[in-house]
Amino acid sequence: MSSDPGNGYGESGDDDLEERKTRVVQRSDIVDRSAPGKDGARPDATTEEARPQENAPIAAGTVIGRTRLMSGHEQSLAGGGVPGSTPTMSMTQPKTQYIHGTSVDSDPIAGWVVVVKGPGRGNFCPVFVGMNSVGRDASQRVSLSFGDDSISREEHAFITYDEEQRCFYLQHGGKSNLVRLGGHPVLSPTELKANDLIRIGRTTLLFVPCCGPDFSWTDEVQEA
Q1: Residue 114 within a domain
Q2: Separation in Å, CA 99 to CA 53, 102, 104, 112, 184
Q3: In a domain, 47, yes or no
Q4: Count of domains in the chain?
Q5: How far lies 119's CA from each of 155, 184, 193, 203, in Å?
Q6: Which among 215, 199, 195 has a CA at the least distance from the CA of 207?
C-alpha cells in the first residue's frame, strides 16, 4: 500500500486499516436462539402474534386464555336484559311494580262490593265510610277497572254509608247508562241492604256490608 498522503493514511496505513476493521464480539448475556436444544429458543411466531402488546388497547371479543372480554351490549344480553342495560339492572328489576295512589283513603272500610257477573267476575272493591264514587277510573273510591267499558270513567254511581244512621244508600251519578238495584232503575237515593244486587253497565255487584245496626267503628269492641 502506498504512503500517498492523499489517501488519508501515513506510512502506517496498513496497520490503521487493520485496526479500523469491524469485529463481531459475542455478548455473554445474549443466548444464541438459532442453536438447537437451547432453552432460549425462539418462541413460535403464532404465540408472539397472539400475545397482546403491553399498553395496547384490547378490543371487545378478544380471547385472553379462557376469558373473553365482552362489550356492554353483550353483557346486557348475557344478563338477560335488554340492549343498553346492565345485567345487575335486569336481574333486580321487578316485573310488576305496585304504586299506591297519593290520595290514600283514611276512612275505615264499611263494606265491599263483589263482582259476581261480568268481565271482572270474582274481584271485589272496598266501600268506605262516607260517600264513595263508582267508576272504572283509578281515581274512583270504588274503581271497577275490570274491562267493562260500559261503566263511566267517573261518578257513574255513588254508594254512601251514613255512620250516624248506620245505613247504606245507592244513587245514580247522572250518566246516560242507568244503575239498577234488584232489576229496578235507581233514579233517587235508595237504601242498600246486605246481599243486594247492583247492576252497572254489564257488571253485576253483590253488596256485602261490614258496618250496620250490629257494628260501627264508633262502637267499643269487646274482648273476643
Answers
A1: no
A2: 53, 9, 11, 22, 38
A3: no
A4: 1
A5: 19, 22, 24, 7
A6: 195
Residue bearing cell 395496547: 56
Residue the block writes with cell 269487646: 222
Extended beta strands in 16-108, E state = 63-64, 67-68
What are phi and psi for residue 89, nearest 5 degrees? Answer: -60, -40
For residue 108, the tally of other CB atoms under 10 A from its CB is 15
Listed range (1-5, 117-121, 181-185, 212-216) with the worst mean pLDDT? 1-5
Q: Decide if 199 is inside a domain.
A: yes
- The C-alpha cell that represents 198 in the structure block: 247492583
User: Grid coordinates representing 14?
Assistant: 496498513
- Using an 8 Å Cβ cutoff, are 124 and 115 in contact? yes
Contacts of 120 by beta carbon, 8 Å cutoff, 6+ apart: 144, 146, 147, 148, 203
Q: How far apart are CA 127 and CA 157, in angstroms?
A: 13
Range of the domain at 193: 125-209
Q: How confident is residue 170, by pLDDT bands cut at 50, 70 and 90?
A: very high
| Within a domain: 171 | yes
Closest to 128 in 3D by CA, of 108, 146, 145, 147: 108
Position 65 pLDDT exceeds 70? no
CATH of the domain at 148: 2.60.200.20
| pLDDT higher than 50, residue 169 | yes
